[in-house]
């Protein structure tokens, strides 16, 4: 392991399909000539050092997990303050819609690629500023699609893995496939407030669809339009958004710091071994 970098750099021959070791390279690697007692002492010291690295790694994992839990708790805490606020049924106060998938067999629906087209895999708790695919104006006119304005909120009604229940804000004009539920800008909810509330309600949305039973737990327009959403004044919504964003900035900094620490810790074992065997005098028993 300590010589892994040297082996990969100097001892590997690149082939057309697989790489292989250069003949005789391993046999020519020089190995420090210590007595068995010295080897055991060095091995014991390295094991102790690597055990400390493992403890540090476990602590970093806990810290990173706690940061993520803090984020979830923060969302819940802010919106818990709105328990007494009036609630309004989403579909009664906001225009909602979904999209469709133009026929892949009709090239006129996909060329020229003129209008962004969102799939549920792109609805992932992040602003949508570009899409993987686009449709033509012909598809927009013929395929039961609406051109959605910026600040439309999207919810993934179904999709692979963690996708179902995720939300995002459109920052561009776009259309969507049939698995996306779109909430157009309206006079009742600030887009950022509604998005953050939906983000905080992610697990509740997944549970809502899972409670329906059946082979596939999907959300649908009826379930989402029936959501009772807190509806304080727009001024209060803006205040809550500002507070959440400030808290998120601090938590993001904590998470980034935890990730950086984890990356450093993950590099430590190779550094410890390299130090031991590149500079064997540092591990030589007295």
From TrEMBL:
Record bears the keyword Ion transport: no
GO function term, MF aspect, one: DNA binding
Keywords: DNA-binding, Restriction system
Domain of life of the source: Bacteria
Domain Type I restriction modification DNA specificity: 87-251
UniProt keyword annotation of GTP-binding present: no
GO BP annotations listed: DNA restriction-modification system
Family stated for the protein in its record: Belongs to the type-I restriction system S methylase family.
Name under which the protein is recorded: Type I restriction modification DNA specificity domain-containing protein
Organism listed in the record: Candidatus Kentrum sp. DK
């Amino acid at each position: 392991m300590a010589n892994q970098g040297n082996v990969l750099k100097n001892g590997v021959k690149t082939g057309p399909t697989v790489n292989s070791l250069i003949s005789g390279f391993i046999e020519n690697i020089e190995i420090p000539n210590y007595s068995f007692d010295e080897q055991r002492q060095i091995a014991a010291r390295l094991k102790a050092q690597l055990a400390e690295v493992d403890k540090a790694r476990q602590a970093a994992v806990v810290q990173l997990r706690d940061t993520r839990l803090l984020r979830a708790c923060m969302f819940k805490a802010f919106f818990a303050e709105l328990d007494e606020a009036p609630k309004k049924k989403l579909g009664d106060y906001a225009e909602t819609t979904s999209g469709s998938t133009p026929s892949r067999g009709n090239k006129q629906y996909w060329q020229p690629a003129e209008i962004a087209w969102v799939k549920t895999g792109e609805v992932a708790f992040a602003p949508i500023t570009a899409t993987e695919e686009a449709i033509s104006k012909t598809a927009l006119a013929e395929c039961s699609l609406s051109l959605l304005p910026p600040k439309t909120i999207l919810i993934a009604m179904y999709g692979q893995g963690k996708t179902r229940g995720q939300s995002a804000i459109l920052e561009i004009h776009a259309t969507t496939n049939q698995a996306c539920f779109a909430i157009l800008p309206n006079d009742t909810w600030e887009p950022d407030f509604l998005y953050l509330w939906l983000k905080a309600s992610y697990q509740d949305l997944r549970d809502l669809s899972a409670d329906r039973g059946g082979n596939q737990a999907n959300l649908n327009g009826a379930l989402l339009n029936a959501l009772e959403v807190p509806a304080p004044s727009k001024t209060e919504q803006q205040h809550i958004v500002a507070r959440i964003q400030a808290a998120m900035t601090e938590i993001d900094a904590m998470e980034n710091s935890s990730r950086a620490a984890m990356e450093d810790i993950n590099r430590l074992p190779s550094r410890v071994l390299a130090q031991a065997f590149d500079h064997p005098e540092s591990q030589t028993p007295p």
